[in-house]
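Ticket opened by: R.M.
Priority: normal
Category: complex prediction / small molecule

The reporter submitted a protein together with heme C and asked that the result be attached to this ticket for the collaborator who will pick it up next week. Submitted input follows.
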Amino acid sequence: MLAVAVWAGISFSAAAQSVQHLTITQPGGMPGLPVMTGISRLTNGVQLSWAGPSGYYQIFQKSNNLTAAWLALGKATNLNCTATITKLYSTAFFRVSGPSPSYIGSQACIECHNNICRYETNTAHAFAFSNPEFKNAGGQNNSSCLPCHTVGYGLPTGFVSATATPKLAGVQCENCHGPAANHAANPNDFTVVPRVDIAATVCGGCHSASHTTYSNAPTYEEWSSSGHAAVVPDVLQSMSSSTNNIRTCGVCHSGSARLAMIGGKNPAVTLTKDYNVPITCAVCHDPHQTNSFSDQLRNPTSSTNAFRLTSADTATVTAFTNKYNANANINLCAQCHNDRGAAWTDTSRAPHHSVQYNFLLGAIGELPSGSATFNPGTHAGLPSSANYSISGKFYLTNQCANCHMQADSSDADNHSFAVTSDTICYNCHITPPELLEEFYLTPAINNAVTTLITAMNRWAATKAPAALRTNGVVAWEYTTPGGLTWTTNAAGNVTSWSLEKPVNFTGPNTAGQALIPDQVKRARFNLYLVLNDGSFGIHNPTFAINLLSAAEVWMVQVLQ
Ligand code: HEC
Ligand code: HEC
Ligand code: HEC
Ligand code: HEC
Ligand code: HEC
Ligand code: HEC
Ligand code: HEC
Ligand code: HEC
Ligand code: HEC
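Result attached by the on-call engineer:
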C-alpha cells in the first residue's frame, strides 16, 4: 500500500518530533492505509512523516524526471512512520509502501484483552451500526455513513455489509488502534503491536462536522478552539527545565503526563519528549468505558465534597493514584480546576488560576469567622444551595458543564468550554446576562478591588515595617507578585487595575514576608482568589463579595 509525497525544494520549518502522534483526522479514526502527513527541511536533508497502521515501511525516491525509476532507499525496515532522507535531488518525489490493512473485529481480541473487551463491547461505539436510529435513518446501506459507523469501510478486509462482514459493524478497537489481525495472530511480534495514541485526532475524524453530509456535532473543532487544545507555553517551559515538573505541573496541564500517572507510571521518567500533548478527548473520556459515568466520562460532572490536589499528592505517583482512586467521584473538571491546597499562609506566590471548584463551593478563602469550608451559592447546583430548584426545575446539577458546555445548535455538548450562550442564565434570571456580568463586574467586584488595592498601597506607604519600604518592592505582595498592576491619581487612590503581566516590581523576600501582618496576608489571599477564579465573582456571587468585604475590614484594622 502506497502513499506519495512531493518534495519541491520549498523550505519548511524543521519540526523533528521523537514521539509520533496522528496529525491528521480521517473519518474512521486511525488510518488503515499510509497517508503522507508531512515533509520538512532539516539541515542535512528532509524529514518525511506519514500516518498508518503499525508494521514495516519502505521508502522510495525518484527525481522529477518523469521517466526515472523509483529508487528504494533501504529495505522495508522502518517502524517509526518517519524517516530522514539525506541524499536529495533538488526536486524529488517520495513514496512509502507499507503493510496492507488486515482487519478482524473485536471478538478476536477477547481471548487476551478481556479486561478491556468486556467493558468496551457495551459502549455506544459498539452499537453505532445496530442503533435503531442509525438503521431508521438508512445509514446501514448508505456508503456515506459507513466510514464512521463501522470498521475499515472501503478498505481491503474492512466492512462491506451487514451480511458479508457482520463482525466489523459498529465502532470497535481497530477504529482507534488500527488494523490488528496480524497482531491477534502473532501477539509476540513487536513490529505489529497496534498503536495506542491519545491524540484528539484519533477521535476527531469521526466526531467532526467537516467530513460528512450527516449533520454531526463539531466536537473536534470546538475542542480545538479551547484552551484545552494546547499546553500553556509557560508550563512547557517549566516541564522542559525540570523533569519533576512533568509530574507536578503535567498532572493538570499535560494529557500524556496525567494519563501516565492515572496508569501508575511516573511521567517524569517515562515521558521525556511527550509531555506536550494537551487535554485531549481521552483525558476526560475513558475510551473503553470501564465505569458507569455517563458519556464515557472518567469522573462524574458534579460533586459536593471539598477536593484539592496538593503538592504532597503529586510528590509521587503512588500518592497520586491513591488520591485519584479515592476521589473518582469528584467532578471531572474539579480534578484539575481546584485550589491545589492554597492557603493564606503561603508567601511565595498567589493562589493558582485553577481555584474554580473550591470557589464554586465556597470552600477556599478567609472569612471573619475563619477559613471558609462550605458556602455554596445557587450556582453550585447543590441541593443545599438556596433556590436550588427554580419552579421545581433543577438547572445546574451538572455544575461547570451546565454553563461551560451548553448544548449547541447540533444539540450536543459544546466542547469549546466557553460560556457561549445565555440560555442557562435566563432559566433563573430576568436581567439579561450580559448586564448581570457587566453590572456585577463594575460596581460590586471592580469597586471592591479598587478600594482594596488603594488600602493595601496606603498600608505599604505608611504602616509597613521600614525594611519592606524599598524601591522596586511592593510591601503587600507575594515574593513572586500575583500579577496585579494599577494606576493611581495624585491622592494615591487606585483609578484602574488589571492582571496584565509582567509586573515591574517584586514582593518582599522570605524574611520580609515574616514582617507582613496576618490581616494583610489574609486580605491579599482573598483578593487574588476572587481575581484568579476568572469569573468576576459569578461562580459564587455572594461569597465573592463576602471575601472582599472581609479583606477590607482587615485593611481598615491595620491602617488604624
Ligand atoms: C493471543 C493474545 C492476543 C490477542 C488475540 C490480541 N492481543 Fe493485543 N496484545 C497482546 C499482548 C501480549 C500485547 C503486549 C505486546 C507488547 O507490549 O509488546 C498486546 C498489546 C496490544 C496493544 C498495545 C498495548 C500497549 O500498551 O502498547 C493493543 C492496542 C492491542 N494489543 C490491541 C489488540 C486488539 C485490538 C486485538 C484484537 C484485534 C488484540 N490486541 C488481540 C496479546 C493479544
Ligand atoms: C470510527 C468513528 C469514531 C471514532 C474513531 C470515535 N468515535 Fe466516538 N462515536 C462514534 C459514533 C458513530 C458514535 C455514536 C454511537 C451511537 O450512539 O450509536 C460515537 C459516540 C461517542 C460518545 C457518546 C457515548 C454515549 O454514551 O452516548 C462518546 C463520549 C465518544 N463517542 C467519544 C469518543 C472518543 C473519546 C474517541 C477517541 C478516543 C472516539 N469517540 C472515537 C464514532 C467514533
Ligand atoms: C464523519 C463521521 C460520520 C459520518 C460520515 C456519519 N456519522 Fe453518524 N455519527 C458520528 C458520530 C461521531 C456520532 C456521535 C455524535 C455525538 O454523540 O456527538 C454519530 C451519531 C449518529 C446518530 C445518533 C446516534 C444516537 O444514538 O445518538 C445517528 C442516527 C447517525 N449518526 C446517523 C448517521 C447517518 C444516517 C449517516 C450518513 C448519512 C451518518 N451518521 C454519517 C459520525 C459520523
Ligand atoms: C474510541 C477509541 C478506542 C476504542 C474503540 C478502543 N480503544 Fe483501546 N485505547 C484507546 C486509547 C485512547 C487508549 C490510551 C488511553 C488509555 O489507556 O485510557 C487505549 C489503550 C488501550 C490499550 C493499552 C492500555 C490499557 O488500557 O491496557 C489496550 C491494550 C487497548 N486499548 C486495547 C483495546 C481493545 C482490545 C479494544 C476493543 C475491545 C479497544 N482498545 C478499543 C482508544 C480506544
Ligand atoms: C486534565 C486537567 C483539566 C480538566 C479535567 C479540565 N480542565 Fe479546564 N483547563 C485546564 C488547564 C490546564 C487550562 C488552562 C489552559 C490555558 O490556560 O491555556 C484549562 C482551561 C479552562 C478554561 C479557560 C478557557 C480557555 O479555553 O482557555 C475553561 C473555561 C475550562 N478549562 C473549563 C473546564 C471545564 C468546564 C472542565 C470540565 C468539563 C474542565 N475545564 C476540565 C485543565 C483541565
Ligand atoms: C491542580 C491542577 C494544576 C496544577 C498541579 C498546576 N496547574 Fe497551572 N493551571 C491549572 C488550571 C486549571 C489552569 C487554568 C485556569 C484558567 O484558565 O483560569 C492553570 C493555569 C496556569 C497558567 C496560566 C495562567 C495565566 O496567566 O493564564 C500557568 C502559567 C500555570 N498554570 C502554570 C503552572 C505550573 C508552572 C505548574 C507546576 C508548578 C502548574 N501550573 C500546576 C491547573 C493546575
Ligand atoms: C475537559 C474534559 C473534556 C474533553 C477534553 C472532551 N470532553 Fe467530551 N464531554 C465532556 C463532558 C463533561 C461531557 C458531558 C457534558 C454534560 O453532561 O453536560 C462530554 C460529552 C461528550 C459527548 C456526548 C455528548 C455529545 O456531545 O453528543 C461526546 C460524543 C464527546 N464528549 C466527545 C468528545 C470528543 C470527541 C473529544 C475530543 C475532541 C472530547 N469529547 C473532549 C468532557 C470533555
Ligand atoms: C452559573 C454558571 C457557571 C458555572 C456553574 C461555572 N461557571 Fe465558570 N464561568 C462562568 C462565567 C459567566 C464566567 C466568566 C465569563 C467568561 O469567561 O465567559 C466563568 C469563568 C470561568 C473561567 C475563566 C475563564 C477564562 O477564560 O479564563 C474558568 C476557568 C471557569 N469558569 C471554570 C469553571 C469550572 C471548572 C466550573 C465548575 C467547578 C465552573 N466554571 C462553573 C459561568 C459558570
Ligand atoms: C438555577 C438558577 C440560576 C441560574 C441557572 C443562574 N443563576 Fe445567577 N443567581 C441565581 C440566584 C438564586 C442568585 C442569588 C443567590 C446567590 O448568590 O447564589 C444568583 C446570583 C447571581 C448574580 C449576583 C447578582 C444578583 O443578581 O444577585 C449574578 C451576577 C448572576 N447570578 C449571574 C448569572 C449568570 C451570568 C448566569 C448564567 C451563566 C446565571 N447567573 C445562572 C440563580 C441562578
